[in-house]
Design brief:
It is a single chain. The protein is an alpha/beta fold. It has 17 helices and 20 strands. The chain has helices at residues 24-37, 70-82, 107-120, 139-147, 191-197, 205-208, 233-245, 260-270, 287-291, 295-298, 302-310, 316-320, 324-328, 505-514, 520-528, 530-536, 543-558; strands at residues 11-19, 42-50, 85-88, 125-130, 134-135, 162-164, 186-190, 271-273, 281-282, 331-332, 337-340, 350-352, 355-358, 365-368, 371-402, 407-420, 430-452, 457-467, 470-477, 486-492. Strands 10, 11, 12, 13, 14, 15, 16, 17 and 18 form a nine-stranded mixed sheet that branches. Strands 3-2-1-4-7 form a five-stranded mixed sheet, with helices on both faces. Strands 5-9 form a two-stranded antiparallel sheet. A hairpin with an 8-residue loop joins strand 19 and strand 20. Helix 1 packs parallel to helix 2. The longest helix has 16 residues, at 543-558. It is globular and about 85 Å long. The two termini are 40 Å apart.
């Protein structure tokens, strides 16, 4: 059983990379955060290259103690105070780029820094990580412990799994078909295992300029023809190791697909993939890639890794195959489907963090529109989560449309007066619901639009799309692997909730009268979410309408049950 101490007693953290004038403050801050998070861990700083350090000494010092160097001296002092061991790497030189779109390649710096740092580490477990990547809490350790329990098969080599990132563990069944391309941003696992993975020679110039003298494989797509090197660095590292253990696997060049299936089996048996949606990460260089939705298919997501590792009878091709249209032309599916503000657009607001924020406006306009995905025929509910609303008087119009607004499926208006972030005590959002129906087999360029006339302040967190009722079939094995073919049917029902206007007249009259007596916060909760209000209410005033409402709810959700 994997048991990594939450204080880091049996954990070495190897931070590797260059230490330059431009990044010294960031590296010092990140290293300090790891020390705060894991006070008992061993921290090894493996410096691959630097433009201001005196590498002839065994600690971090600058060449000259001058006024101009004071900032770097402070960074060195902080690093020396929190780091247990400093390693200055041996000779390495930059190489030509891997890809025509990339800068020069520092793979040999990376190999040398990883190998040297891991040699100095002494604890049972190790986190080998780039020095610009920070786990902000210990939730990644909890994930690792849980995933190590997944079954392993005949390609197992390591004592325990090694955790890696989904970005960029490339999906060889998608647009850039690169088998054995496992992310190398970080490795978390047994020290003895991670050392094995990095016990590889430097890459030579001939390898990096392979396609200057060799043709691409027939059938290579445009992205695959950008390569200059024989393989990506990630492939060089992983295939270089695993080919020694399994001589029959093949990778003659970067998009050689002869061992594509084995590359997935090796991934499932030896690695586990971080669920970045449940991890708190600071990685400024690539933060946008975490929220770029196509990466869920371009790369192998935690979700797909978990499904395949627990169900080894599945043919990975049936789960992982995506063409360009299915990657970049998204369909609203897998409900509830969350639309983050990074998916959306705005005309009068601005993207701040993970929200769209609207400062004070008198003229109003379109706060949110998008994301122009496809949506299947059916009945849906869109729910907007508003994290701030301050206004003397405003109307918010919410619409569901197709064809860039040419076809309006449904719209509704919500009025607010003297509203100052007046959310209920148990909720952090003001929620607006819109029920709509898509009458077409496929609706194109679907979007949710929020218009506002005037606000003092407004912020939108996200939008969720719920399907009224559905039956979902997941095919676990099909295609070429006929002998293992089987299927599992998951059946669930997204509940429908009666709207106030659908209730009997007497019920509505009663509620209008009782609203004059109820607390304002209760009235607000009832207006936002009647089901939650009646379900939780213990008020005498709600006893009669509670029975009526919940009976209506049960009747609605009994109809059309799927067996």
């Amino acid at each position: 059983m994997v048991d990594i101490s939450m204080t880091g007693k049996n954990l070495s953290i190897v931070l590797q990379g260059g230490l330059f004038k431009k990044n010294s403050i960031d590296v010092a801050n990140i290293t300090s955060e790891y020390r705060n998070l894991f006070p008992d861990a061993e921290i090894v700083l493996s410096v691959s290259s630097s433009d201001f350090l005196d590498t002839s000494k065994y600690e971090l010092t600058t060449y000259k103690n001058t006024a101009k160097n004071q900032e770097f001296i402070r960074a060195c002092n902080i690093l020396n105070s929190v780091v247990d061991t400093v390693v200055f790497c041996g000779d390495a030189l930059p190489l030509p780029p891997v890809n025509i779109k990339h800068p020069s390649c520092n793979a040999n710096y990376q190999i040398e820094a990883a190998r040297s740092g891991l040699q100095k580490a002494t604890r049972e477990f190790v986190l080998r990580v780039r020095n610009d990547f920070l786990f902000k809490d210990n939730s990644f350790l909890i994930q690792y412990k849980e995933m190590c329990g997944n079954p392993r098969g005949r390609f197992s080599v390591f004592q325990e799994r090694i955790m890696i990132c989904s970005l960029f563990t490339l999906n060889p069944y998608a647009v850039e078909r690169l088998p054995f391309h496992y992310s190398d941003w970080f490795h978390l696992g047994k020290l003895s295992d991670v050392r094995l993975l990095w016990n590889i020679p430097h890459i030579n110039l001939n390898y990096m300029t392979y396609y200057m003298n060799n043709p691409y494989l027939p059938g290579s797509n445009e992205l695959e023809r950008h390569f200059l090197a024989k393989t990506a660095v990630e492939q060089y590292i992983s295939f270089g190791f695993f080919s020694k253990k399994f001589p029959n696997i093949k990778l003659s060049c970067h998009n050689d697909l002869r061992s594509r299936r084995e590359s997935i089996d090796i991934l499932l048996d030896n690695f586990c993939i971080l669920d970045d949606k449940k991890a708190s990460v600071y990685f400024p260089k690539y933060m946008k890639d975490f929220s770029f939705r196509p990466n869920e298919k371009i790369c192998i997501s935690h979700k797909n890794w978990d499904l395949l590792s627990k169900n080894r009878q599945i043919d990975p091709e049936t789960i992982l195959t995506y063409n360009k249209d299915s990657i970049y032309g998204h369909t609203i599916s897998g409900f509830p489907f969350r639309l983050n503000m990074s998916d959306m657009h705005t005309k009068i607001g601005m993207q701040l963090g993970k929200e769209i924020v609207v400062p004070k406006t008198e003229s109003g306009g379109v706060v949110v529109f998008g994301p122009h995905f496809e949506i299947r025929e059916g009945r849906y509910r869109a729910r907007a989560y508003i994290s701030s609303l301050v206004s003397k008087e405003t109307i918010i119009k919410m619409s569901a449309t197709l064809e860039h607004g040419k076809e309006v499926l449904q719209e509704a208006q919500f009025s607010f007066k003297d509203y100052h972030n007046d959310f209920s005590k148990t909720e952090n959002f003001l929620t607006l619901d819109l029920d709509f129906t898509c009458p077409h087999k496929v609706g194109f360029d679907f979007e949710i639009v929020l218009d506002v006339d005037r606000v003092e302040d407004m912020a939108i967190s996200h939008i969720e799309i719920f399907e009224a009722k559905r039956s979902l079939k997941t095919i676990l094995a099909s295609g070429r692997n006929k002998n293992a073919a089987s299927s599992r049917v998951e059946i669930f029902e997204a509940k429908e909730y009666p709207r106030m206007e659908e209730m009997p007249l007497l019920f509505r009259c009663y509620m209008n009268i009782s609203a004059k007596i109820m607390k304002k916060s209760l009235v607000e909760k009832r207006n936002r979410n009647p089901y939650a209000f009646f379900r939780d209410s213990k008020s005498m005033l709600a006893r009669y309408p509670k029975k009526i409402y919940l009976n209506k709810y049960r009747a609605m959700n009994k109809e059309g049950d799927v067996g």
